[in-house]
Amino acid sequence: MQQIAFLFPGQGSQRPGMGRDLVERHPELVDRYYRPADEILGFELSRICWEGTAEDLVPTEITQPAVFLTSIAVLDVLRGHGITPSIAAGHSLGEYAALVSAGVLDWRDALRLVRRRGELMAGVNARTPGAMAAVIGPATSVVEELCAEVRAESGGIVEVANYNDPRQHVVSGEADAVRALSRAAKAAGAERVVALNVGAPFHCSLMAALEDEFTAELDRVEFRDPLFPVLANVTATRVTDGAEARHMLRRQLAGAVRWTDTLKVIDERKVGTFVEAGPGRTLSGFVRNTLPESECHPAGEARRIDRLLKAFDAVPVTVPVTAGAGADARVAVHG
């Protein structure tokens, strides 16, 4: 099997019915993940994933565990066919699934952390209403300069939250400052500026207030050393051990997602095949825009996994593997 990078999506990739076709094809996933997840969370996340509306999936405290759980189900199916990564990364929320894939976190612990993370982030927005917007077109330096200008002129908070690909950047901060940045970006010639329907201003300094409380949550959980390389969002560098993984998740709350750099680091390791292990195809688009010569396979649905298996000429393995034991959005966010 060739060297493969698994990419795990974050908030913004959710969609009604996600994971339903997987459990229809692989009913063992219900008892393995979905039913335990419902018990851990105290509500029927499985029903929301399979039957909920797009509106049901909007609240951050729902979206984050829903996307995470779907990604873990996809991971299990891929492993069950002998498809395993040699390196992994996750976009924001997806970093938790990446750590599960490498044995750093048990999936149950990661689910609890993701749920609490979403609750805390939603609380920030209730206290200080924020916003996010995707700026399409300008180079990184231009977007960073515009943020600095708006901060200097208004005194408001607006920062680059996601460096998604060379021509897409997501800004985050106080609502008025993000609106001012959006106007400035349009005046500077941005192709598009898209206001994002999100539950909080993710990955900016407004989230720094959560760090101490969330650190207490992280400290309750066992973090093991990774079985293979996982790249951290905030540095685009390899996580060396469990302690560093915990520290990077703390920093990630208020730190930017350096996704473009992450993809380039993977490319430098001569890994030319990517698998998007979770709902949606957003990350596959970022791979195409950043590394046009690379191969990327979205694998968030049964039919897409079928195509992947055919491309890899894969067959089911005989021993089941349990993850963690040891309209497509073109803008990725966020939480």
Oligomeric state, counting identical vs distinct chains: single chain
Strand order of the largest sheet: 7-2-1-8-9
Mean pLDDT: 92
H-E order: EHHHHEHHEHEEHEHEHHEHEH
Return the structural class. Answer: alpha/beta
Counting DSSP H or I runs of 4 or more residues, the number of helices is: 13
What's the count of strands?
A: 9
Poorly predicted ranges (pLDDT <50, ≥5 residues)?
317-333
Dominant shape: globular
Residue share in helix? 40-55%
- The share of residues in extended strands comes to 5-15%
Outline the biggest β-sheet.
Answer: 5 strands, parallel
Distance between the termini: 32 Å
Rg value: 19 Å
Question: How would you describe what is shown here?
Answer:
46% of the residues lie in helices and 13% in strands. The protein has 335 residues and is of the alpha/beta class. It is globular, with a radius of gyration of 19 Å. α2 crosses α6 and α3 crosses α4. Strands 7-2-1-8-9 form a five-stranded parallel sheet, sandwiched between helices. A four-stranded antiparallel sheet has the order 4-5-3-6. A hairpin with a 2-residue loop joins β4 and β5. It starts with a strand and ends in a 23-residue tail after the last helix.
Properties at a glance:
disordered C terminus, 46% helix, 335 residues, alpha/beta, four-stranded antiparallel sheet
Task: Give me a quick take on this structure.
Helices cover 46% and strands 13% of the residues. The protein has helices at residues 20-25, 28-41, 45-51, 60-80, 94-101, 107-127, 140-154, 175-187, 211-219, 242-252, 259-268, 282-290, 302-312, and strands at residues 4-8, 87-90, 130-136, 158-165, 168-174, 192-195, 230-231, 273-276, 295-298.
